[in-house]
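Course assignment 3, question 2. Fill in each field.
Student: A.L.
Task: Predict the tertiary structure for the chain below.
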Amino acid sequence: MRIAILSRNKNLYSTRRLKEAGKARGHDMLVINPLRCYMNIASYKPTVHFNGEAIDNLDAVIPRIGASITFYGTAVVRQFEMMGVFSLNESVAISRSRDKLRSMQLLSRRGIGLPVTGFASSPDDTDDLLNLVGGAPVVVKLLQGTQGKGVVLAETRKAAESVIDAFRGLSAHFLVQEFVKEAGGADIRCFVIGDKVVAAMRRQAPEGEFRSNLHRGGAAEVVKITPEERATAVRAARIVGLNVSGVDILRSKNGPVVIEVNSSPGLEGIEQASGKDVAGLIIQYIEKNAQAGRTRTKGRG
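Answer field:
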């Protein structure tokens, strides 16, 4: 098979591992910077060009689209979809996952456990908004943030009001969520491929920090998840429409609650913590599912 990895940096761990895994299984692996792609949006014959040549004869693409290039990156993925190329994660699903409000609404409609979450526009609604989520402490999240950026823990009501006022002053869209204290600064990353959780790790925030992201100094270790957590992760990925995802779960007193469904989960932490060849499992999924013209929008919303 001829498989293209859409990544801005060929030296990133995840990109390197996917390329290595594909080559080990006998595939022709390309790394293409999506920002260097340009498109001919022509009737009946859409094409994608890179380095002065049309990209053709692809069997599949693996999008590794960073949050900062979501708009252009998903446009490139969509163009490949129009050409009938199988996309590991489809453009609509990637867009859903990047919009925290949209993904939360989709998950809530299907009964997935979530932290109590509020969203409002007017500053006149701040008091009631904080009451809706149970009052301080609360977590305030920018809708477009990733890797823990734009996520603030407000421990008092005054602090929460100040953060909300600051975000509103920047015309930023944000969510206000209950703080799940019993999680103890830890979350569980479930790596979902198809309809299975193939690996899971527990990420613990460092002392004095509540965000457990590995990019922020969090520590990871392999963890045994419950059947309920496994089912929640698989359902969340399916609802958002992702074939491969990292579903982040908190263990709350009311059971597992989903805090994010990530469409470009990193491989380094999960492979090192679990000892599993996750990149190889992704290539195997493509081998079983990639068919010309199979790409289609999954789900609704």
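Instructor remarks: The first strand starts at residue 2 and ends at 6. The radius of gyration is 20 Å.
Grade: pending
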